[in-house]
Amino acid sequence: MNVIPHRSRSNFRSARRPLSRRGFTVLVVLALISITLALSYSIMRSQMTGIQIQSNSDRGNLARQAALAGVNVALRNMRLTGWTGVGTPLTASISSTDSYTVTFTAGDPSLTSSNPNYSDYPYRVMVLSTGTSVDPAHSTVSSTYKVQAIVRLIARQLTAAPSNYATMLGYTLYEMTSGSDSAMVPCHIDGPVRLQGALDVHSGYNWKDAVQKAYYSDLNAMRNGSNEVQTISRVLVTGGTFTLTFNGATTGNIAWNASTSTLQTALQNLSTIGAGNVLVTTGGTGVWVVTFVGQLAAKYLPVMTVNTSLLLGVGMSFTCTITTPGSPGTPDYRPFSGPITFHKAQTSSNDQTLLTNQLGVTLIELANSNATALPISSSQTYRLYPGGPLYNFGQLPASVANTTLGPDPVSNPLGIFYNSASATLGNNVTITGTVISVGDLTITGTNVNIVPFSLQPLEGTSTPIRLPSVMTLANLHITSAATATINGVVYAGNQLLVDQGTETTALAITGNVIIAAGNLTIMPRTEWQSYSPGSWDNFYSSYQAQLGTSSSIPFFPQWLAENESLIYIPLLTIKADPTPLVQQWQDFGNPIYVTKTGDSGLHWDLVSWADHL
Question: 92, 274, 361, 458: which could join 355 in a potential S-S bond, CB 3.0 to 4.6 Å?
């Protein structure tokens, strides 16, 4: 065993103290280095984050610039004829790292069915531009930015209608080719009519010419009404005076044999008559004829009463009776108001006499023959504007009842309903838009209403634009006891036919009727047709017998309505629409609205703009 000397242990202890100080120093240095490295890394990391943030910000700005460039190009393209339309995206690169993609979507997603501007939906387009910027150092890193614009079509011009369409609309009823036409009372076609074939207005009923002429003459006279005529007659009067009382006012004493001018002055001095409102003429010896005119013309008036207490004469008689009751003018209830343009040689002299002499209708010789046919497209789709979405016609079932059909701004904005064969409309049908039937369109029900849909007016106007309400390539057929109201242009490829039926059968067309290759046929009413010639003669005799009585009915049609329940007010009527309209005939192979002549393309109005979606 070795023993360390005492001195050596003392030296060992003194040797360890310097070594401990050096180790501590090393630790301090290492700690300082660690702190320095940590600070350096933190600074470096902050710098790298800042660089990345700046890079991302630059990418975002570049993406936004690309999106704005895209939407600007898109809006410019929409105003050019070369615009490819909705559904076709627009893509372009601005640089090696920046690009945009623009989509065109029909409609406006902000418009819902509860929005008051929902009908505007098909005229709007959503333009969505997405800008993209790729980091050139990292191709998988990119920024995107979206800009959305909603624009609305400014309608400036319609597809040109056929040149002869405006001419056709100048007539309430227009036939394009020859046919055979008949219209039996009670019916009324108001305004100018152009026919190609013979017209029959007399053969439907069993009445003789004299009775029919009386009826038609009174239909014409009723339009202006009748002035009241009262006759004062004296018999065996030899002297004295009398007074007349009218509507509470009484004249002074009038000589028994006064002149017509004296009697007229006495009546005009009454506060209830006045100057210029009565005319007195002689009706023969002892007879004064008093006709009420001016402000008292065509009015129901009370009969004058006579005070005869101061007259002289044995067995005398002095009376005042209503010879012709006053009657206000009625609406025009004639079958035609005219003028009628047609080939006169094709219509019988009897019918022409009834039309001119009794009904007071002007007849015009047709100078030309068949009209040029209107173009009818076989298309079952349509567009509102070039580049717009393609809409399908709505399907019209073969049988429709208790149904309401109308436009859908998203799928069928014009409300066009089509049947490839024939269709029948039963009870309680309302259609807003255009009904197209390749075969017959038959109305059998009651409460049938067809009204056209009003398109957006052209820029700078408020006049609605309307397509025809009915287009049937065969017959528009109204059966017995049907009741229908149609507003708008009616096109019948073959015939407008109203079946024989009751007086309650009703067809009210407010618009123009165009018949292409057939004729107008309004058949007799069954109530009228059931009477024999003898019955009609008896009716007319009874009517004549009551004329001149205080309760007489002045016009034969009114007498028939009162005594035989034969209505003279027609429920079968056609009249032009007085509303200012643009009536558009459309070949559906072309868009409704087109680029206005002289413009470079369609015009659009900015509705809304959304940035950074």
Answer: 361
Confidence of residue 550 (pLDDT cuts 50, 70, 90): low
**Which among 575, 104, 541, 540 has a CA at the least distance from the CA of 335?**
575
482, 380: one domain? yes
Same domain, 289 and 169: no
Which region among 365-379, 537-551, 592-606 has the lowest average model confidence (pLDDT)?
365-379
Give CA–CA dist 24/538, Å, rounded. Answer: 147
Q: Which residue has the tokens 């301090």?
A: 28
Residue with the two structure tokens 């006169």 = 344
Percent of the chain scoring above 70 in pLDDT: 90
- Residues 6+ positions from 365 with CB-CB distance below 8 Å: 341, 342, 343, 344
Residues 209 and 243 in one domain: no
**75 Rama sector, left if φ>0, alpha if ψ -120 to 50, beta otherwise:** alpha
For residue range 282-302, list pLDDT tens digits in order.
999 999 999 999 999 988 899
Asked if residue 567 and residue 426 are part of one domain, the reply reads yes
Separation between Cα atoms, residue 401 and residue 445, nearest integer Å: 8
> Which of 34-48, 238-252, 260-274, 505-519 shows the lowest mean pLDDT across its residues?
34-48
Number of domains, the chain = 3
Per-residue model confidence as pLDDT tens digits over 435-458: 999 999 999 999 999 999 999 999
| Host domain of residue 467 | 165-224+331-583
What pLDDT was estimated at residue 462?
95
Q: CA angle, 436 as apex, 432 and 439 as ends, to 5°?
A: 140
What was the pLDDT predicted at 442? 98
Distance CA(272)–CA(270), nearest Å, equals 5
Residue 294 lies in a domain: yes
Query: How far apart, in whole angstroms, are the C-alpha atoms of residue 168 and residue 188?
Result: 19
Query: What is the distance between the alpha carbons of residues 520 and 514, in angstroms, rounded to a whole number?
Result: 10
* DSSP 3-state of 41: helix
Kindly report the number of other CB atoms within 10 A of residue 100's CB atom. Answer: 27
Q: Is 265 left (phi over 0), alpha (psi -120 to 50) or beta?
A: alpha
Q: For the full predicted model, state whether its pTM sits above 0.85.
A: no
d(C-alpha 507, C-alpha 513), whole Å? 13
CB atoms within 10 A of CB 225: 18
Residue 130: both structure tokens together: 């997405």
Both 508 and 527 in one domain: the answer is yes
Instruction: For residue 58, count other CB atoms closer than 10 A to its CB.
Output: 13
pLDDT greater at residue 14 or residue 282: 282
Structure-model confidence comparison of residues 267 and 7, the more confident one: 267
User: Which of 592, 575, 572, 576 has the alpha carbon at shortest distance from 506?
Assistant: 572
Q: Is there a single domain that holds both residue 311 and residue 436? A: no
Give a yes or no: residue 254 inside a domain. Answer: yes
